[in-house]
Amino acid sequence: MVEHAQRLISGNPSFGQRITIIKGKVEEVELPEKADILISEPMGTLLVNERMLESYVIARDRFLAPDGKMFPTTGRIHMAPFSDEYLYVEMANKSLFWQQHNFFGVDLTPLHGSAFDGYFSQPVVDAFDPRLLISQSTYHTLDFTSMKEEDLYEIDIPLSFVSSVGTRVHGLACWFDVLFNGSTVQRWLTTAPGSPTTHWYQLRCVLAQPLYVMAGQEITGRLHLVAHSAQSYTIYLTMSAKMWGVGADPGGILQTSTAKLELKEPYYRLSQPQAYMPQDQQQLPLSSLQAQGSGQQMQDGLSPGITVDQERDSAAFTRQV
Questions:
Q1: 277 in a domain, yes or no?
Q2: pLDDT recorded at residue 61
Q3: Closest Cα partner for 232 from 126, 139, 125, 74?
Q4: Does an H or E element contain 74, and which?
Q5: Domain range for 57
Q6: Is 182 exposed, middle or buried (0-12, 13-18, 19+ CB in 10 A)?
Q7: How far is residue 159 from each of residues 78, 80, 173, 199, 320, measured CA to CA in Å?
């Protein structure tokens, strides 16, 4: 990368008077003075994959002047439960190969359980239809200007949602956005479902055991990310909801489903057909993408491409111009 940048500077002499390239890791290089602006692209899948945010924070502490600016300034991980029967069946069917009792004379069934667990340990990376979301979203904020490196070693996010429909909950959908907070202008880069697709797409954690919910029912849980030496995270997901039926206690029976997934080993589901309307025809209810709060609070906090209709107190996608 340094060699390519140097060739660009050599081919544009006016740049050479203003740009100095220093080869090395931000954790090791030395600068003669503090910087006024720190610019980086440290985002990975689910914002934190590849663990470049830690280097970004280290660069801030080592090089940024007290009144300096960081771009991006803030990141948010958004989460909402989803229902996608097609995806669940696709994931479950992957392990059918290992149910063969006579594969050229070999009984493969002893490995079926491991194969099933292995497929569901892969987060699904793709661009999905936002209509698959079944509740308003919540989000967890990372303030790059003030957070510590240690804050990224473990990230613990409590979950609480209210289902808008009666359905099966197949897991948790996640995406992120980052804020470029300039002196006079704010710009959001979003990876939200329904927005123009980026190379980060969205990420879904699929539960091997879905939950059953009714409209208006609460879904609770926890998303716990633990960093590891492979420059990524292990994802621990717990989701719970009550279920009522014949013979159940008046308070219901608590369903709980858990998952352990490796963010480093996703299933890139990029060649699958997607059910989208053309962008200029989209006018979708986006209660599922709103943060909790008043209409104005939601409008202030939403990423580009998502607006709140104050008259209807609902949200809708609009084309970005």
A1: no
A2: 98
A3: 125
A4: strand 74-82
A5: 45-270
A6: exposed
A7: 11, 9, 12, 26, 30
3-state SS record for 130-180: HHHECCCCEEEEEECCCCCHHHHCEEEEEEEEECCCCEEEEEEEEEEEEEE
Phi, psi of 152 (to 5 degrees): -95, -5
Contact 241/232 with Cβ under 8 angstroms?
no
CATH number reported for the structural domain that contains residue 96 in this entry: 2.70.160.11
C-alpha to C-alpha distances, 276 to 94, 134, 248, 273, nearest whole angstrom: 25, 17, 40, 9
pLDDT digits (tens, 9 = 90+) for 110-130: 999 999 999 999 999 999 999
Q: Is 311 a catalytic residue?
A: no
Tally the domains of the chain. 1
Active site residue 54: no
pTM for the structure as a whole: 0.82
- Quick check: 162 and 81 in contact, CB under 8 A? no
The CA distance from 256 to 296, in Å, is 35
Whether pLDDT at 150 is above 50: yes
Catalytic pick from 3, 27, 33, 50?
50
Residue 297 has pLDDT above 50, yes or no: no
Residue 287 lies in a domain: no
In this prediction, what percent of the chain has a pLDDT beyond 70?
83
How buried is 43 (Cβ within 10 angstroms: 0-12 exposed, 13-18 middle, 19+ buried)? buried
Burial class, 179, CB count within 10 angstroms (exposed 0-12 / middle 13-18 / buried 19+):
buried
Q: Is residue 315 part of a domain?
A: no
35 within a domain of the structure (yes/no): no
Select from 21, 144, 91 the least CA-distant residue to 269: 91
Q: Are 202 and 270 in contact (CB under 8 A)?
A: no
Which is higher by pLDDT, 290 or 18?
18
- Please identify which of the residues 27, 41, 154, 218 carries the catalytic annotation: 41
Tokens of 315: 């949200």
